[in-house]
């Protein structure tokens, strides 16, 4: 699959100076849109600084996830179990739907949300998973993240890990070598039956540029 191109990003030194304003910027749309107030403040600000996405895209991803999930609930209620993950405005759908018709309708819901660039629909045709299965998926995600940190072969904050029915999905803006290292950690983690890469690939040079807070300004 041809990976989408992404524009140059501002230097992370600029992000540090804007953290206070960005925290307020997050809070305002959340309040106006009746979003639940989560993951804001210092924690969200620190995450934005270390992320390869622009700060604006980071905020947009949070809003996309909430909007898509809300529209799915409004449309189907408890008739589906769908997890929504947005990374660099590309949306990953995981979970279960009762029919192929319903599964297909999810694509339309995502497409109707502002700022979405694309959708990867990995929803299975199956009954909704139970709480035990979902709890197990959460444990797998935590274990994979911890092993990435321990391995030291990949910068864990550049990789987003999502687990559904023991299948691990990996998202991020990464180099090929980073992708391979992350996939290997996930593949060899306990309980994982499959690894799916949902990466956007960049060159080693671009990765260094994005990770360098004192690098040349990116407009």
Automatic annotation (TrEMBL):
<dbReference type="InterPro" id="IPR006311">
    <property type="entry name" value="TAT_signal"/>
</dbReference>
<feature type="domain" description="BON">
    <location>
        <begin position="136"/>
        <end position="203"/>
    </location>
</feature>
<keyword id="KW-0732">Signal</keyword>
<dbReference type="InterPro" id="IPR007055">
    <property type="entry name" value="BON_dom"/>
</dbReference>
<feature type="domain" description="BON">
    <location>
        <begin position="60"/>
        <end position="127"/>
    </location>
</feature>
<protein>
    <submittedName>
        <fullName>Transport-associated protein</fullName>
    </submittedName>
</protein>
<dbReference type="InterPro" id="IPR051686">
    <property type="entry name" value="Lipoprotein_DolP"/>
</dbReference>
<dbReference type="Pfam" id="PF04972">
    <property type="entry name" value="BON"/>
</dbReference>
<dbReference type="InterPro" id="IPR014004">
    <property type="entry name" value="Transpt-assoc_nodulatn_dom_bac"/>
</dbReference>
């Amino acid at each position: 699959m041809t990976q989408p191109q992404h524009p140059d990003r501002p230097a992370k030194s600029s992000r540090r100076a804007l953290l206070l304003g960005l925290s307020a910027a997050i809070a305002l749309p959340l309040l106006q849109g009746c979003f639940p107030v989560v993951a804001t403040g210092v924690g969200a600000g620190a995450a934005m600084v270390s992320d390869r996405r622009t700060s604006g895209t980071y905020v947009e991803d949070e809003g996309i996830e909430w909007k898509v999930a809300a529209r799915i609930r409004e449309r189907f209620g408890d008739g589906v179990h769908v997890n929504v993950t947005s990374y660099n405005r590309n949306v990953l759908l995981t979970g279960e739907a009762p029919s192929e018709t319903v599964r297909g309708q999810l694509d339309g819901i995502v497409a109707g949300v502002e700022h979405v660039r694309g959708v990867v629909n990995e929803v299975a045709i199956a009954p909704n998973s139970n709480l035990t299965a979902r709890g197990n998926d959460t444990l797998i995600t935590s274990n994979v993240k911890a092993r990435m940190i321990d391995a030291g072969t990949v910068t864990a904050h550049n990789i987003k890990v999502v687990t559904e029915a023991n299948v691990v999905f990996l998202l991020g803006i990464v180099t090929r070598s980073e992708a391979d290292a992350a996939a290997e950690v996930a593949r060899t983690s306990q309980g994982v039956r499959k690894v799916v890469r949902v990466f956007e690939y960049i060159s080693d040079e671009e990765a260094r540029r994005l990770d360098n807070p004192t690098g040349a300004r990116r407009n």
